[in-house]
Amino acid sequence: MPNDIAPVSETDTGTDYEIRTEEALRDLIGHPSGLAAKKSLPKLDKYCRDFIALSPFLCIGTMSGDGRADVSPRGDPAGFVQVLDDNTIAIPDRPGNHRLDTMSNILANPSVGLIFMIPGFEDTLRINGRATLTRDPAILDRAVIKNKRPEIAIRIQVEEAFLHCAKALKRSRLWEADAQVDRSVMPSLARIILNQTSEGEAIDEATVKTADERLEESYRKHLY
What we know:
The protein has 224 residues and is of the alpha+beta class. It has 2 domains: 46-171, Electron Transport, Fmn-binding Protein, Chain A (Pnp Oxidase, Chain A); 181-221, no CATH class. It is 29% helix and 26% strand. It is built from 8 helices and 9 strands. The strands form 2 sheets. A 7-stranded antiparallel beta sheet has the order 4-3-7-8-9-6-5, covered by helices on one side. A two-stranded antiparallel ribbon has the order 1-2. A hairpin with a 2-residue loop joins strand 5 and strand 6 (88-92). Helix 7 (189-197) packs across helix 8 (205-221).
């Protein structure tokens, strides 16, 4: 067996193998060519700016100082991400659960990756760069919604930007109406979290009802 390919575990069936080096990966999959090899830009162009202006949703990937990865969603009315110049964008921070995973990671490791999405678009925009946290009044003042001004924003120095093809969204049928899943097929978020944190203790329905109501009240009153 080659040194750069190994069984995943002792229980491996013999058909699943770990790829250990990029050379082995490239031998298996190949290299990008054509437009895929050339499309990466070192700054935002007109099309990237237009995509950001239409996007109400993104995911930002970060990594802690000890290498733990995290991905977090961000959403607001379309155009909420400010394009400050061809190499700089800013994302306002809205009220959340105070875990601060993304921002704590940025303080330890500024490298970030983002995917922007537009409802109805199957293409996505990817941006990689380096982030800092800012309280710049010029950025925060432009991010006021419902008279609520964010306390902080994530400022990102763009190092790479490119549009990503639609294969993943086509395969997932994300925007197709007949592919939408009825939320009732799973318990409410509050019930799930209560069950996950109960350590085996029974959860009474009154507790679930109160938790559901508090979550809905938070959505109504504390989005901004």
